[in-house]
Amino acid sequence: MSQSNPEWPEVPVVVPWYHWVWVLPVAWALRLWLATLRINISGAAVISKDETYLITLWHDRLFTSAVVAKRFINRPITALISTSKDGGWLVAFFKLMGIKAVRGSSSKRGAAALMSLTRAVRAGDCAGVTPDGPKGPRRECKTGVVALAKLTQRPFLLMGISYHRAVRLNSWDAFAIPLPFSRVDVTLDVVPVPAENQTDEQVAQAIQKKLTAISGD
Length: 217
Prior knowledge:
Layout: H1 20-35, E1 38-42, E2 54-56, H2 65-72, E3 77-81, H3 85-96, E4 100-103, H4 110-122, E5 126-129, H5 144-152, E6 156-163, E7 166-168, E8 176-178, E9 183-191, H6 200-214
Parallel strand pairs: 1-9, 2-5, 2-6, 3-4, 3-5
Antiparallel strand pairs: 6-9, 7-8
Helix pairs in contact: 1-3, 4-5, 5-6
């Protein structure tokens, strides 16, 4: 029997209510930080703000994902976030940004998370997913996002984000944080619902190639 990894628990770690005393000011500070960024968008003409998409981006670009998604999508957004402690803090931040969360990953609560996210999309929410998360390998698209597309029959909205000036964390994904007042280029691309004759692996490879091409290093 395999032992559970405490970093990726079966039961999602939740930020206790009393920590919100300082989560709130940190979230507002991050909002101000994000507001300084000069965001340039291309590909917006291919999307409909009222469409239900599977918003797909690499894990290392999560820092700006909420502000970009809320700017160009009118529908509610439900994001897939890991069960880890870091995921708990991300849930708290996303909640303050107006984004809901489903907890799980490919290795922990995967089936339950997929079903919860499927229900949210069928109810009209856009889904926010990082196909290489929550622990890599970096920029390798897993097939879970393809399963979600086939279950919901909703297209992908690839969100490629490129930072002109950023710092990187020493993490598995080299998580990037843009410097205040720097330029951020966002490229949007819609990929249709996978055809029945396409395997999950084929679709995942195509998503990986396209998303990498429109994302910064």
